[in-house]
Each structure stands twice: as structure tokens, then as C-alpha cells.
Amino acid sequence: MSDLLHDSATGLFYRLLRPSGEPTSCLVLLHGVGGDELNLAPLGTSAGGDTLVVLARGPLTIGPGQFAWFRVSFSAAGPAIDEVQAEDSRRIVASFIEQLQSTRGVAPGKTIVAGFSQGGIISASVALSTPERVGGFGILSGRILPELEPRIASTERLSHLRAFIGHGSQDKTLPVSWAHRSDTLLSKLGVPHETNLYPIGHAISGQMQDDFVAWVRDTVR
Fold it and tell me: What is the pLDDT of residues 58-68, one digit of tens each?
């Protein structure tokens, strides 16, 4: 793993897990709220092969060693987000991915963006609004923001995308109903995807990780 790096164009900090040879694909992983870029290192390490793994850190500091992509509060009515911050992060990550592809020589069609919880939210936002930047995206215990709807690209632009949804059936933070909503929306948009549910809470289990990595390898091969 690399030291902590800084992208001057977007302001994001990140680390790299480099393959032994020249990368032919890229996996950008985004952590959840309150975490940091190291949270998804185990998942990134399991990708293996000739994939360049990028572990990005959220731009907002919400506590010592705690970062986020946008602020969110929870109530009986469900999660309420800071829409301005979510939109800023969507644009930043899309630009960051474009910079990576230019400097590392990886094609958009061989690039996957994915994340846990809030990181999965941003991954879906980037892919569905700027599908030219990636070949696929993963939502791990996350959701697709209803607020994203006006920015979702046309079905023609989305036609090449692939998606992975992994969610815990016992999730109390983001109930499994969000996975069902994502599944329904992607079907409506004509985005080929697989949806897998696991007997866990708000987390990434070993089986979810294995299923996601297998999906990534199949998508970028």
C-alpha cells in the first residue's frame, strides 16, 4: 500500500494498492460516514490480479480520524442528507476518477467505483449521473439517493453500465428496503445488476466481499 497521497485537482487524499505489473483495470473504493480510506483495504487487497485499487478519503472531517462524503442525520422519517455536500462529493469523485484514468492509463470501461454505506451512495451517484466515467458500480449496504433522480443519465448513456447491490437483511441503519428500491430503480433504468442479501446488519460480511470481488473480476475481464 502506498503512503497517503493528495490529488491537487480535487483536494482528495487517497492510497493505492498497486498490482505487480501494469494495471489493466481500476477499482475505486469509498468508505462510509465516520470512517477513513483504510476501512476498505481488506476488500481492496482481495481484488488482486492486475487491478489498481484506489482507497479514497471523504473530503469532510467530522471528528478525529473520521471523515465523510456529506453530513446526514437520522430520524423516524428516515435519513436526511446535506444535498449541497452530497452534490459536491459526487462532482469531486467523478473528476477524481477522470484524473486517475488519465494518469494511470486505465479505460473508463475497466473502472469500477464502489463503496460501503455512504461510499456506496456516492458511487451510485457518480455512475448514474456520469456513466461515461465507469464500467460499473457497487453499493455495499448503501442506497441510491432519491435526490439524484434529476441528474440520472438517459437510458442510452446508461446502457453499458453494470451494478452490484449487497445488503444485510438485518440492517438497522439503512433497512433492506433501500436495497429493494435500488434493485427496482436499476431494473427500470435497464442497468444489468445483481442483488444479494446477507444475514447481517450494517456491515460487509466475508461472503458479501467474496461475491463483490467475483462480480468485479467478471465485469472488468
Answer: 999 999 999 99
